[in-house]
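G., the chain you wanted modeled:
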Amino acid sequence: MERLPKVAIPAIIAAIVLIIILAKSAVTVSSGQAGVLYKTFGGGVVTDEPALGEGFHIIAPWNNVFIYEVRQQEILDKMSVLSSNGLDIKLEASIWFQPAYESLGKLHQEKGEMYKERILLPAIRSAARSVVGRYTPEQLYSSKRDAIQQEIFEETQKFVKDQYIQLNEVLVRDVTLPSTIKDAIERKLRQEQESLEYEFRLVTASKEAEKVIIEAQGKADANRILSASLTDKILQDKGIEATVKLSESTNSKVVVIGSGNSGLPIILGNQ
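Predicted structure as tokens:
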């Protein structure tokens, strides 16, 4: 086996060193991510320059890049809070957030990669306890869910306002009450619903009765007006008209034997 030339060994070593340097210098930032540059000999975390965007970057081999997810993210948190009357409430909330891209360097320098655990989760829990403590279990279970959700968002927003975190939404997914309280609330709601239905039936029945009375009154008034207008002359004329029509019928046989007290013919039969 032939010996390598003396110049070949340093060349191989130089190539290996170059490969290592290039490997340390090349940084690829994936889609939806950004990089924070740390200069080992240049003042640490770079906060006065934009974060490294998506794509391929070359940096000094002695520097480092910390990769952050900058797309919207979600944290699902379950917590125990107290209502206004001291009852233990289980709350499940979903937090939509993302780091503030333009302040990513400051976020890394001041809060670090654990910023969700250090800042965001304590903020949402503190806000939830503060807001839920203003409401009764009945309000939490029924009508105030949307209002509570909005208030928790606003309270959390105050905590993270200057923490380089962009809070997009807080969603209250579930509110779990103690079983005894939940059953009592459901019974109360059923009773209220039954009471409303009963009141509706009473109102409907009252309107129906009023309608019948109005119709009867109208008929009575009509009959009274009609009776007042029927004079003896009108009745006699009507009787004559009826007698003439009956006599003209091909199927009737009329026998006239005289006149009654009203002066009209007396009809004994029409067959």
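The two ends are 149 Å apart (CA to CA).

Shout if anything looks off.
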